[in-house]
C-alpha cells in the first residue's frame, strides 16, 4: 500500500514535468497564495467537512509534519506500520493545495476518503472554510517563534521549486516582516488563531513546548482527541516522532517528492528541527530591526513565544 501510494504520487509529479516551476503569488483577501490555489479558490472555500474531521493548521514550517505524524500515530494506537501505509501528504491531505494535473489536489484526495479525516492547512484563520467552525470540528494549531520560523521558511523556499525565488537572506527578512511570503503574514496568522482559540475550541500548541517536553505535548493532543493510550504507547509515539526518526522515515521526510519540486540537495525538507537556530542567521543589526518591528506588530498580543528553551 505505502509503496504503491508513494510511487503513484511521485509518478504524477514527474508526469506533470515542465508544468512545475516557481508559481507566482496572487492575493485572496490580502493574503498571498500560490496561483493554483487562487484559481481553485471557490471550490476550496466551499469545502464542507464532516463534524468528525480534524484540522491541523500552521503557518508554513512551524511543525506541521511533526504534528501530523503525532496525530496519525495517536489515532492508530502507536502502530508504526499503519503510519507507514502512505506518505504524509496522502494520509493527511493538504486542504488548499492544487498542482498541475495529473497531481491530485487536496480536495480530490479528501473526496476519496471516508470521515473522520485529518486535514492539513496553512490558511490563516479568516480563510479557513466556514464549515469547519459551523460543524464544530476540532482543530489543532501549532505556532513557532517568528525568528526560527523565518529561518526555516527561508531554507524551505530555497529548495521548494514551486514557490517564488526567496532571494538573498537580507531581503527575505523584509518579505517575512511585510507578509509577502506564501500564506501571508506570520503575525496575522498566529494572532488570528490565538484570538479564536477558546471560542472555536482550538488546541493551540507551541513548537518550543513540543521540543522541550514532547511527551507532555503528545499527551495534551491525546486528551484533546478524547483518547486514552497506555504510557508505553505514548513513549513509542514520542520516539517515532523524534526529529531523527522522522528525518530517516521515507513516509515523512518528503523524499517521495521528486527533485523538480523539492530539491533536497539545496536544503533538506527536514533540516535541523531545533529551537534557536535563528542566532546563526541574524546579524546584530538584523536582530534589532526585527525585534523593533516585532514589538510594534505584536504589542496587543499576549502570546507566550520563546526564542530559546
UniProtKB/TrEMBL annotation:
Write out the entry's keywords from A to Z. Answer: Catecholamine metabolism, Cytoplasm, Transferase
Q: Which GO terms describe its molecular function?
A: estrone sulfotransferase activity
Entry-linked Gene3D superfamilies: P-loop containing nucleotide triphosphate hydrolases
- The Sulfotransferase domain extends over 51-300
What is one GO cellular-component annotation here?
cytoplasm
Q: Kindly list the places in or outside the cell where this protein is found, as annotated in its UniProt entry.
A: Cytoplasm
Protein name as it appears in the record: Sulfotransferase
The organism named in the record is Salmo trutta (Brown trout)
* Phylogenetic lineage: Eukaryota, Metazoa, Chordata, Craniata, Vertebrata
